[in-house]
Design goal:
By secondary structure, this protein is α/β, with parallel strands linked by helices. It has a domain of about 60 residues. The chain contains eleven helices and twelve strands. A hairpin with a 4-residue loop joins strand 1 and strand 2. Helix 6 runs parallel beside helix 7. The chain is globular, with a radius of gyration of 21 Å. The structure holds iron/sulfur cluster (SF4) and magnesium ion (MG). The site of iron/sulfur cluster (SF4) has 12 residues, from loops. One of its GO terms (molecular function) is ATP hydrolysis activity.
């Protein structure tokens, strides 16, 4: 399978007044052509910063890619002039966010925003641009397309705005679409429709998707591969079947346990106890050790590296070291 997006040993740091926060710390990921890669983690895990690094949208923040490579279809997209980066955005790579209102222009009609998107990247006649805008809007399944072309964002529902955002992101047929929690603000029914829409358009347009979420339930719906992030690192990565069928890392197990089951009340949710550590006081060994119920001595001293638990399935946990028994098995009475 062709690698459409390749992130190699990415380090993105934030330079605050008194401390350097390693928001992304040696992350390597591969997005295969035509597939969807989910990046999962709590807030502060580095998943959004990874996306912003790929989009080259760290300008104006205190963040900077300090090391590593990001290749789009083999082309380096980090060490290129700002002008070239601008060309990539919305053209070869585009992004949708959780709150479409922040990315839509409130005083411009939907039609004109879509047309402007095309014109930023391609030279088409007015008629061609209009037809293409109308066509992609129609593909998103919104009702009364001609009317909506003339409407303003505030006249639409949240679900409709998200569809318009998706249309805007895909109108130039990008090689990669990055979606950062695009359905989090929507209710469950609309959420399912939007995921379905993304799947359909992905097939039609041939875009590959980097899907960022805190919700493993959503990952199961839409992703082919998954990378679970914690404290700026990938802690577990696998194809979606192996990740759910053979979950290796205690943090992923915790995330899985916190997916609400049908009919379960929200108060009954199992959430992983404790918080993501303060970047000023990062644990020395495994970054998850303060919250991990399996933690043992070594976890507090030495950071685990990746171990391959199945072909292509990596976990950064000492429990996954080959030939090692889990502590719970060690204390079980032997038959
Ligand atoms: Fe838990 Fe230790 Fe594994 Fe970290 S290395 S996840 S602390 S068992
Ligand atoms: Mg985020």
């Amino acid at each position: 399978q062709k690698k459409i997006l390749e992130i190699k040993h990415l380090h993105t740091h934030f330079f605050t007044d008194d401390v350097v926060v390693k928001a992304v710390d040696d992350v390597s990921l591969v997005l295969e052509e035509g597939s969807t890669l989910g990046i999962v983690g709590e807030s502060g895990s580095g998943k959004s910063v990874t996306a912003l690094s790929v989009m080259n949208l760290l300008m104006g923040t205190k963040g900077k890619v300090v090391e590593g490579e990001i290749l789009l279809n083999g082309d380096d997209i980090v060490h290129i002039p700002e002008e070239k980066k601008r060309e990539l955005r919305g053209g070869r790579i585009s992004m949708i966010f959780q709150e479409p209102m922040t990315s839509l222009n409130p005083v411009m009609t939907i039609g004109n925003q879509l047309i402007e998107c095309i014109k930023n990247h391609e030279s088409l006649s007015k008629k061609e641009a209009y037809d293409r805008a109308r066509n992609i809007l129609e593909m998103t399944g919104v009702p009364r397309v001609d009317k909506m072309m003339k409407e303003y964002p505030f006249q639409l529902s949240g679900g409709q705005r998200q569809r318009v955002m998706i249309a805007m992101a895909l109108i130039c047929e990008p090689e990669v679409l990055i979606a950062d929690e695009p359905t989090t603000a929507l209710d469950v029914t609309i959420q399912a429709q939007i995921l379905d829409l993304m799947n359909r358009l992905k097939e039609k347009i041939g875009t590959s998707i980097l899907f960022i979420t805190h919700d493993l339930g959503v990952v199961a719906e839409i992703c082919d591969h998954v990378a679970v992030m914690y404290c700026g690192r990938v802690v577990e990565t696998a194809d979606v079947y192996s990740l759910f069928g053979n979950t290796a890392h205690p943090y992923t197990q915790g995330l899985l346990a916190s997916i609400p089951k049908l009919g379960e009340k929200v108060e009954e949710l199992t959430v992983i106890p404790g918080n993501v550590p303060n970047p000023r006081h990062m644990p020395i060994g495994c970054k998850f050790s303060p919250r991990c119920s399996y933690a043992f001595e070594r976890c507090f001293q030495e950071e685990p590296r990746f171990f391959e638990v199945a072909p292509g399935h990596l976990s950064r946990c000492w429990l996954n070291e080959p030939n090692r028994l889990k502590p719970c098995e060690e204390v079980l009475p032997q038959p």
